[in-house]
Amino acid sequence: MTWRLLRAAPLRLGGFVFLWWVLSEGALEDLPLVLLFALLATAASLLLLPPALGYGRLRPLGVLQFIPFFLWGSLVSGLDVARHALSPKMSVTPGFLTLELRLRTQVARIAFVWAANLIPGTAGVELVADRLVLHLLDRGQDTEVSERDLRRLEARVARMFKEEAWLA
């Protein structure tokens, strides 16, 4: 067993147990069964996403700093979607935007795509190597502002994965 595996296994196991605890609202019934399934999920995650390929150099402090941004983005995005859905006249001009990502690792790029979906009216469509195609609900908006927002998001994701040096 490698050092990375020995370090990753308990973290992943703890993450799966914590996820169960949150989803079950803190219930402690069937704990042995939960531990069994958490162990199986941990084993599957280690096989499918080995530590050497996985999270790169994920920084816990970077993740903690990202959480408020994520929560605020979810709220703003939800309100924007509701505003568009309830608006009597929806004047939108959908379109696409191609962005060359500066993130080095695939896991950081995927995290970026997930987070980019929080930007109101934005959805990741295709990610090939370092090229991301995004669908914009309203292409009529100032595209430069959208690109600036995406670069800020990329910098936040880079801080989570210790990739700040690559963004210079």
Automatic annotation (TrEMBL):
Any one GO CC term of this protein is:
plasma membrane
Bilayer disposition of the protein: Multi-pass membrane protein
Q: What is its main location?
A: membrane
Protein's UniProt name: Multisubunit sodium/proton antiporter, MrpE subunit (2.A.63.1)
Keyword flag Transmembrane: yes
Asked if the record carries the keyword Transmembrane, the reply is yes
**What organism does the record attribute this protein to?**
Truepera radiovictrix (strain DSM 17093 / CIP 108686 / LMG 22925 / RQ-24)
One GO MF annotation is: monoatomic cation transmembrane transporter activity
The cellular location(s) given in this protein's UniProt record come to: Cell membrane
Q: Where are the transmembrane segments?
A: 34-54, 66-86
Keywords, A to Z, come to: Cell membrane, Membrane, Transmembrane, Transmembrane helix
Q: Tell me which family the UniProt entry assigns to this protein.
A: Belongs to the CPA3 antiporters (TC 2.A.63) subunit E family.
